[in-house]
Amino acid sequence: MKIKSMTAWQPGFKNAPGDWRMSLGQILVEVETTDGTVGVGVGGGGKAGIHVIDTVLSECVLVGEYETPNGFHKAMCDHTSFYGRKGIVPMAISGVDLAIWDAYAKTMNKSVYELLTDLPAPAVLPMYQTVFDDEEAAQAIESGKKAVKLHVERFGDRPEPCVIGDLVRATRKRLGADKAIMLDAFGRWDVETTLRIADEISDASVDWIEEPVRPDQLDEYAYLSANSSIPIAGGEHEYLAEGFDTLANAKAVNVFQPDINWCGGLTSLIEIYNIAKRAGIRVVPHRGGEPYSLPAIAALDRNSPLAESARSWFTCLDGMPVVQQSGVTLNDGPGFGVAIKPSYR
Ligand SMILES: [Mg+2]
Asked: Is residue 91 located within the same domain as residue 157?
């Protein structure tokens, strides 16, 4: 497989969050193989990510010839290892890797799912939705979501446990006993706050507390995972298999949440699933209901697949997976089954 051209650009979105998720956010990557097959990927890093692609990644992607996408991925990681093991470089690599996987599957006239397993695809996959209060939680469950995640960043760095407790208990009361509830602190808390809150909600059957502290506080994560009564989730802001291997070795989290459009693409996500399997860690990819993670969730997690709902403002692709009352439907390809809408070119 050889790539003859590669283009990256940053589309604009209406109603996107006005923070780094846009300024350093979503870039589209299109590759064309020498046999004329076009692949589409989504990565991150904004203009900085595009610069990484146009300069250092193109130096290896447009020169190398490999049988599978893994060869390109290794070449990109090796080429950038002095300065790019976390953050913007893996975000850019993700877009290129996904575009190459898309083209690779298309050359075989298969969906990416079919490349990952011989098992028949599930009809639908369960979804969860991020919500802000019990009212939104009830609406999400009514619309068919199997679980909800309460985003609690707005309560600040050291919320009183009873404030979070009241929200969780109100949500549990509305949803009943059998719907999963999770919490996302977006890295705002410290160890003491997290343990006090975990104690406060220990009877409410909360499936995980997500990113209780900043992503690089590995010792704190390990301490919390060993001492919290509620499982700890993280990895939304971690990169490449090496980063997740470090998390696993430190016993830092009980749930991995890799973002396929940031963490290094599908090649990295497959490795992350393998690391998780060895370590007994659950994998619930960040924004897993978008088209790039869904094939991996369906193929590589047959026990407890769960897809996070897609972001409403992410509107540049045709072929977004269809969400129904019963769950989200996998695209049947070829590739990831997506195309760039003409107005985003
Ligand atoms: Mg999160």
From this structure: no
In the reported structure, the alpha carbon of residue 209 is separated from the centroid of ligand 1 by a whole-number distance in angstroms of 10
Domain end among 110, 142, 159? 110
User: In terms of domains, do 241 and 317 share one?
Assistant: yes
CB atoms within 10 A of CB 114: 18
Q: Structure pTM? A: 0.97
Closest CA to 95 of 48, 32, 30: 30
Q: Are residues 161 and 216 in the same domain?
A: yes
pLDDT tens per residue across span 73-129? 999 999 999 999 999 999 999 999 999 999 999 999 999 999 999 999 999 999 999
287 CA → ligand 1 middle, Å: 9
For ligand 1, the distance from its centroid to the CA atom of residue 309, given in whole angstroms, is 12
Q: What is the pLDDT of residues 36-83, one digit of tens each?
A: 999 999 999 999 999 999 999 999 999 999 999 999 999 999 999 999
The verdict on 161 and 251 lying in the same domain is yes
Ligand 1 (single-atom ion) residues, CB below 5 Å: 184, 236
Radius of gyration of the chain (CA): 20
Distance 110 CA to ligand 1 centre (A): 32
Where residue 338 falls among pLDDT bands split at 50, 70, 90?
Answer: very high
d(CA 305, CA 284): 7
CA proximity to 90, closest of 259, 214, 284:
259
Question: Does residue 118 sit within a domain?
Answer: no
